UniProtKB/TrEMBL annotation:
SUPFAM superfamilies: MOP-like, P-loop containing nucleoside triphosphate hydrolases. Residues 7-238 form the ABC transporter domain. PROSITE patterns: ABC_TRANSPORTER_1, ABC_TRANSPORTER_2. This is Spermidine/putrescine import ATP-binding protein PotA.
Length: 363
């Protein structure tokens, strides 16, 4: 564990009653001062992870460390963690100033100190001058900022944000993404942000945990996860993908669409069935004879920045292509791609198994 680690989950399982585990043997580390995103479909366990970090619930098995100490049974108010909830949970009968001041009053700080801190927090979120406003006179985006000011005023080490942007319209949401990211950089506090929107996760995070059914499927930087999805779930969940079935021939050689291709993957069994991912933007349209694959154009849509072209090869695989070039519907075209564009995935492989496989290969 590095000195920079602020939170660590070690084989944490959370189970309610006799139901199957909501979180199943989850391990990860969170470093100080970074922006993390928990990304996954509804019900996968994102909020449960936040609740465990905040201390609103205890693990059924495993350990949670904060700053190197086990905190499994430490109550929420004894942790340097603040949460911004999806509905902001602001007090409607208090004005903006008092909403932000609430935690400081409980801590019995002096009035002058409270005033300084609240004003500074409001300045951080661009709400100076709104102190006297009632909560119901604020817009959705402004309420969101009040909720953030209320969290940062306590100077926590970690801020947890549970889908804080989901109630906002698209334009405001994009603005707030920039603002939140900027705020995190200025404050240097660790942010753990929950979303089920993959574009939001890619745009905002230093690191993303992709979660499905109570397990972390993959963790890494946005580019890691986008470029090297570890299994079908991740490839499908993050961005648009072509996923076809194939077979590993040997290291650096894979077969799909009844042809063999050079690739950069290794460490699988010879003749092992695999799944292949190629991103639509990694496919280049050529004349049929110059392409690695020959396909027939089925349909084409103009998407503003590129054409989205849907094709089929002779084995019946569908290929989605993003191209600035136009194609002719019903014509035959070639598709060219680099060996690096082919991502080979073992069926249902987890991140742990993937790491072990590469270690075994390298060692
Ligand atoms: N107190 C509880 N008792 C029993 N089951 C619960 C409890 N809280 C959550 N769960 C279950 O745990 C699972 C994970 O819930 P969680 O709220 O962590 O999901 P989530 O990823 O945040 O989903 P969403 O995106 O819909 O908010 C769900 O199946 C949910 O029904
Ligand atoms: Mg949730």
């Amino acid at each position: 564990m590095s000195d920079n680690t602020i939170i660590r989950f070690e084989q944490v399982t959370k189970q309610y009653d006799q139901d199957p585990a909501v979180l199943d043997n989850v391990s990860f580390e969170i470093e100080r001062g970074k922006f993390y995103t928990l990304l996954g479909p509804s019900g996968c366990g994102k909020t449960t992870i936040l609740r465990l970090i905040a201390g609103f619930t205890e693990p059924s098995a495993g350990d949670i460390y904060l700053n190197g100490n086990i905190v499994n049974h430490v109550p929420a108010n004894k942790r340097q963690v603040n949460t911004v909830f999806q509905d902001y949970a602001l007090f409607p009968h208090l004005n903006v100033f008092e909403n932000v001041a609430f935690g400081l009053r409980i801590k019995k700080l002096k009035n002058a100190e409270i005033k300084t801190k609240v004003q500074e927090a409001l300045r951080f979120v661009n709400l100076s001058g709104y102190e006297e406003r009632e909560i119901n006179e604020m817009s959705g985006g402004q309420r969101q900022r009040v909720a953030i000011a209320r969290a940062i005023v306590n100077e926590p080490e970690v801020i947890l944000l549970d889908e804080p942007l989901s109630a906002l319209d698209l334009k405001l949401r994009t603005e707030m993404q920039y603002e939140l990211r900027e705020l995190q950089r200025r404050l240097g506090i660790t942010f753990i942000f929950v979303t089920h929107d993959q574009e939001e996760a890619l745009a905002m995070s230093d690191e993303i945990f992709v979660i499905n059914k109570g397990r972390i499927q993959q963790s890494g930087t946005p580019t890691d996860i986008y470029d090297e999805p570890i299994n079908r779930f991740v490839a499908d969940f993050i961005g648009e993908s072509n996923i076809v079935e194939g077979k590993m021939i040997e290291d650096f050689k894979v077969e799909f669409a009844n042809k063999q291709f050079e690739c950069v993957d290794k460490g699988l069994h010879s003749n092992e069935p695999v799944e292949i991912v190629i991103r639509p933007e990694d496919l280049e349209i050529t004349r049929p004879e110059n392409g690695k694959l020959q396909v027939r154009v089925d349909s084409q849509l103009f998407r503003g920045v590129h054409y989205e072209i849907c094709c089929y090869d002779q084995s019946g695989n569908e290929w989605l292509v993003h191209s600035t070039k136009k194609a002719e519907v019903n014509s035959e075209i070639g598709l060219d791609f680099e060996p690096e564009a082919i991502h080979v995935m073992r069926f249902g492989e987890t991140e742990e198994e993937f790491d072990k496989r590469l270690e075994a290969y390298n060692g």
